[in-house]
Write a structure and sequence with these properties.
The complex is a heterotetramer of chains A (339), B (875), C (189) and D (336). Chain A has 339 residues and is an alpha+beta fold. Chain A folds into two domains: 284 residues, Alpha-Beta Plaits, CATH 3.30.70.20; 30 residues. Chain A has a four-stranded mixed sheet with strand order 8-1-10-9. In chain A, strands 2-3 form a two-stranded antiparallel ribbon. Among the domains of chain B are: 294 residues, Dimethylsulfoxide Reductase, domain 2; 192 residues, Barwin-like endoglucanases. Chain B is built from 26 helices and 30 strands. Chain C has three domains: 33 residues, no CATH class; 53 residues, N-terminal domain of TfIIb (Single Sheet); 83 residues, no CATH class. Chain C has seven helices and eight strands; from the N terminus they run H-H-H-E-E-E-H-H-E-E-H-E-E-H-E. In chain C, the strands form three sheets. In chain C, strands 1-2-3 form a three-stranded antiparallel sheet. A three-stranded mixed sheet of chain C has the order 6-7-8. Classes of the chains: A alpha+beta (339), B alpha/beta (875), C alpha+beta (189), D mainly alpha (336). Chains in contact: A-B, A-C, A-D, B-C, C-D. At the A-D interface, strand 2, helix 3, helix 4, helix 5 and strand 6 of A face helix 1, helix 3, helix 5, helix 7 and helix 8 of D.
Amino acid sequence: MTAENSFYGPLADPAGDAGHREHPPRMGFFTDTSVCIGCKACEVACKEWNGIPEDGIDLLGMSFDNTGMLGASSWRHVAFIEQERPLGRQDAGLAGLPVGPSSTEEAEEVVADALEVARRGGGDLGTAPVDLGFPSFDLPGAGTGTETRTQFRWLMSSDVCKHCTHAGCLDVCPTGALFRTEFGTVVVQPDICNGCGYCVSGCPYGVIDRRPDDGRAWKCTMCYDRLRDGLEPACAKACPTDSIQFGPLDELRRNADRRLAALHEAGVTEAQLYGRDPEDGVGGDGAFFLLLDDPEVYGLPPDPVVPTRDLMSMWKHAGVAASALLAVSAAVFVRGGRR
Amino acid sequence: MGSNMAEAHPVGFQWVIEAKARGAKVIHIDPRFTRTSAHADQHVTLRAGTDIAFLGGVINYILTHDLDFREYVRAYTNAPFLLSERYQDTEDLDGLFSGYDPQTASYDASSWSYASTPMEEQPGHHLKEVSAPYQHGAGGPFIEGAAGGIESDPALEHPRCVFQVLKRHFSRYTPEMVERICGVPQELFLDVCRAWTENSGRERTTALVYSVGWTQHSVGAQFIRAGSIVQLLLGNIGRPGGGIFALRGHASIQGSTDVPTLFNLLPGYLPMPDTTHEDLSTYLDGVRGRGQKGFWGAADAYMVSLLKEYWGDAATAENDYCFDYLPRINGDHGTYRTVMDMVDGGKVFGYFLLGQNPAVGSAHGRLQRLGMANLDWLVVRDLAMIESATFWKDAPEIETGEIVTEKCRTEVFFFPAASHVEKAGTFTQTQRMLQWRDQAVEPSGDQRSELWFFHQLGVRLKEKLAGSTDERDRPVLDLAWDYETEGEEPSPSDVLRHINGIDLNTGRTVDGYLDLKADGTTACGCWIYSGVYAGETNQSRRRTSRFETGPYDAEWGWTWPLNRRVLYNRASADPQGRPWSARKKLVWWDAEAGEWTGHDTPDFEKNKPPDYKAPEGASGIQALDGDDAFIMMRDGKGWLFAPAGLADGPMPTHYEPHESPMRNLLYGQQGNPVRKVYGRPDNPSNPAPPEAHFEVFPFVFTAARLTEHHTAGAMSRQLPYLAELQPELFVEVSPELAVERGLHHLDWAHVITSRTAVDARVVVTDRMAPLRVDGRVVHQVWMPYHWGQTGLTKGDVVNDLIGVVADPNVFIQESKVLTCDVRPGRRPRGPALLEYVADYRRRAGITTETGTRIATAGGHVERAHIESDRPEEQS
Amino acid sequence: MGVKRWIEAWPVYRQLTGTDPLGRGKAAQSARSAGLTSRTESADRVAGSVCPYCAVGCAQRVFVKDGKVVQIEGNPDSPISRGRLCPKGSASKQLVTGPQREQRVLYRPPYGTAWQELDLDTAMDMVVDRVLDARRKGWQDTDADGRPLRRTMGLASLGGATLDNEENYLIKKLFTALGALQIENQARI
Amino acid sequence: MSRDGAVRQGRDGRDDDGSRERSMVPRATFRSYYGRPVLKPPVWEWKIPAYLFTGGLSAGAALLAAGADLTDRPELRRTARVGGFAALLASMYLLVADLGRPERFHHMLRVAKPSSPMSVGTWILVAYGPGSALAATAEVLPAAVRGTLPGRLLRLAARPAGLSAAVFAPGVASYTAVLLSQTAVPAWHDARRELPFVFTGSAAASAAGLGMLTAPVAEAGPARRLGAVGAAAEIVASRLIDRRPGLVTQAYTTGHPHRLRKASEYLTLGGAVTALTLARRSRVAAALGGLALMAGSVLQRFGTFEAGVTSTKDPSYVVEPQRRRLQARGEGRDEE
């Protein structure tokens, strides 16, 4: 049942496109980060349900984030961002206090510098332990000595696999281990995966990874087993403040639009939806977000594109190159003729 | 205030998020910016331990601007009542109330009484020693003759009426003073005042949430009193959307006070008898008082039923229902006192730790471990191995040489405990709701429930003592211990039946405490829980889905008393019994039906009309008028002024914490003049003004929980999924303090007090901010306290930094505020650590007397209260 | 027959003959995935429970299969928690089934340097003896004025606040009968 | 410094000493999450670039062998067939060994996915392999077997087999470029137009190098010409990558990948020049030139691979171009 937009562009029914007939509606997550309290229940509930191993007991210094990133052993990741700017009309109560310059940038520098020398540059966070050691740097908070911080906000956001409409990982998987389910989600089948690692580089969000001691690739399944029994995924079930909402994607998109409007009205003008747009580079995400800052601040790519978009073009170029090789190979013999 | 709800009670916080989505404004007042602040509309940074100054400012704002809910205040509080002429305020005595005795550091509270209900003079020392105020619990202390009508001024203008006294008492808590003491800029403070008052009244209510950020102070009980006064003045008690929420920290910590394992309480907040109680009737006189209003009037029924449950057939009217079997208290037998007795040796020989890890979780962990190392034997029951069971081989004192394994005589038994899914029973959660847990699986190996353990212990003790003629063994031999069992396992539902109460004539459960009798025909283990097994049905096991019940979900679990969800909800209606407003209706008088009705179970006699006037000479329940909404109080009113019952004053007063970098700006009296200090060499205090050298420990220290861990860590540090989320002990400092002390993000630092020094990784964050307090910059330092030397993630014990000084009302330690120093790099190890800390003590001039000269009013620094002065236990 | 089935199970064959020519969905689904169900559905029984951490009192459902806890999650029926759990509550299964749980009674004799195993029955009897001994050593009949005390100061107890009400009740009752006063709880901490 | 704390304070670019060569973009110009990468770096290690080389070598050799067969150059044919098959065996080993679960290598044959270059490549290799194997086997038959019926049949089949391998060989040589390009790895995806030419050129050059190394000068003329042309294609395409506009190019033009590719260019160029000059006369020069071409190809593959890895470790390579794209789109919209 391939459609015109099987590889790129808006696609109304990815499950149908993947050959599922009479399938349930496309299910998804809407993560409203404006109500996330950073409790990490999602991370734990996910691990308990899916039996995921612990992935490193290391202090990262990224505010309260000690997971760092999604990975083979972290299918939910709560990001913490401390910023010197206000949240909507929130008053952080700093006016009039004897404060100096902010330390958020320096703290970020310390972490970033330590990550740079890590083996995979921090890409192993969420998959394997990353010990940042005990960096020692210039005095934090030194700044230029004149500014005082007057504003502050603390953002939290639970990240997860996006279950893209056009999933880079799924497209490149050579074994069919990754497949699109009847719910329109993207799932790795652990009985099939042979650990080729292609999906890791196929994902424009840096979500999926190979577990070192296990050899297979792992990521969020949106609790495929639970969905089949009509249950909601473990993370959404646990989320205390309903920051993680689960349901038919159409419904979630409507909820998200309403919530966005409400926040804008309440003065939180920086609120934006991410992954909501079916016209975007991945055809819209099955798990999308309401963010309070630009995506890259949360470690998300601002404008991801599924690599498959360029499938035809790439094969065309390869075809030309291959033809040229064949032609040249023939030509070099033609000149010499038979010996 | 004093609560980090989003982090400590995340699932409860969903209701705050939901309220916010519906338009509620959320204000968070806390020393640091937390995950709760991140979702508040306004965050207010406050100097730790100055909450009364702040709330006093709010009270003053309300009273000076006439913003109180006057009709409510007049009808339901004791504002109109006139006080005794003998009463003198802190305004008159430089921070002390009348009746203070500097020798014993205690109050004779008799001068605080109402003019028309005088009390006999009584030395305060005794009350302080037995934590008497706590014994009164929800009941409040007695006021002789309150039922007879109290002299009052409904106009609230008489200079001696509570309202005017209150006004005068708080008149110096001005916005300027709040700013100077708390470090909260005036504008910010006034914003809070405006928001709070504008959102209270007929149409609107405001809720106040606190946690141990309020209780763990040397003035902790008065913090809560201050909050109560604001809420009473604004009419926010007993009404939907109002109230004061004490968010408690443990699954059944509410239950642990209701069915107490506390030295000074019997079940249902009945006091433990002391040496003045010669017999049951003198005891009951003490509880009921004479001529008082309210439901404590039936205390005889509660107590006799309890004794019948304890000693069954052996308890008869003739032998005073075995009242004599009860041991008597005559002093402080609280946990910290006990631990000091262990250290001193020869007093305490055996110790049970039941799911508790004081080596990490109690203040002054060092003292705890040294105490445990000086016992004959110790029994530890827990799910996993904890520091309190292994101190003899891996305590920090092993490294310093203070405990030597081969020389440590304590015999230790470790019993593995059954978990919450391996046994059935009830937890009482923070809103007084009992919820039953079914047993899911059998425990394995030697794992057993506490119920099994203590039942077995009782059975075996009875066997062992069988035939004993020693009179002291009678209470054990006569003890009713015949609970239903399955094999060796006692039936928890049968125990709950007995807690509920049983009519001994029919053998069936009673329906509530109104059915209890003082004639020995009912047995009841805890009168406030009576009704939990009404109709021979386990009401706590009800699980009617919220999708199928009304807004108050009355069929889920069971809330004491009698399944009432909002206490004192009579106050949700006006004196005439009509809802204050349609928006805020909860319980009201249905004149046609002649009964109270509404969404919740009315917390009032069902058929007593609002205009009911009690007959002359009535007492107890009968003495309650139709508008006495506060049915447990001896005068039926909410107390703006506590004429009795508190050890440290009838009204909250700002005192500096025991350890503070500041002189009290309001009074000559520096700290709580009645706080419990333990001046001992092993319990030094950092100096506080007016003492010298307080600058050696220049920073304010406070500690609290993280979402990802649980208290002393036994239930979280051992779990990989939680350990990885908060993998290491850290100390949060502001960028300003980091510059001042040369601290680097993620590097090591150590925090020092006169007790010890602990290592931690540095987290420099904008979430911490310095304050300007009376022209000086004050830095605050915060640490989580979950770490110890075992588990998947290990670290120093933060509680080792904290000394023992306690609130005089409830004996809870001041662990939410102290002073400290912070230095970069790691602390010295081994014996060098002891020398390092000793050097700090030398520099600060610390002796056993430091911090124990607690009376400082009027410029006189009175005598030190050191350990050797403690009146010896009489025996 | 076997070969036919084998061929039909081959995803490439299914790609060519079925609805999923690109091999990204239906055709690539393994037999295991096609038969997947949640382990809670196959549980033998579900026990209603309450989270053992903080005092919010979140309702839990404990799923049991073959006498083992296979999952603990929130109960959506609860008006308190609406089925939600925090990270600690969500880690409850690890709390009750993890390897950190001790199984045996352990005993450290005076001056000992290591734990020894001890039979539960023996341990109970030893504790009974020690309780009576400590009770006797710390016994006080009267105070200096001759007023009855009828108590022992030789015994103390500190309970955590995760004990059940029924347990606390028996603890207080038994200790009170023994004359032991210093029975305390986390509630004071 | 901006108020929102998101834009970092400017800092110096890193020196090019190899150990800390990332962050070519000062962090001041983009925002990120604690400088953490957005993408996962490839989990592949040295085996994959090594396979890129051996696969290309095998394919080029198959073409060379077929040409040699048809133009009656038995030595070149023999060494190319055997060398090509040996390279194929090495490729198989490298591919299987790089799997997280090598015992499941056959799962590659579960599906035939046009969207997956690795799946397409697998099937190309399946088609290519037997021809290469058969032709090579025919070359190395022991004398004793040659005369037997199977032996004769095999020798008869060698030419069609070799030709079949040659038909699929261009696919083998070029699909790997798509394999790398169809990823989210910025340096690979951005070079998707040039990479096939780099890789086929590199394949041709390496196979030619093999021919020069192993075949006698007299027979190696086509190999020398192929080497020159292949090298030229590789170098030109590679230079085109270096000149692409945009930040991502820096992944190729700086640091370790840059050094690898520079060395590759020198070797390839040297090999090509030798092929056209000295190698026509001297067997030793031919061997050295051949080795240089092969080494150049190896370094090219590793350089390209490393550039990709580098581009995933630094969030700027992801954020910066995407942000710019969004801005451009936003401006475009504004103009409408």
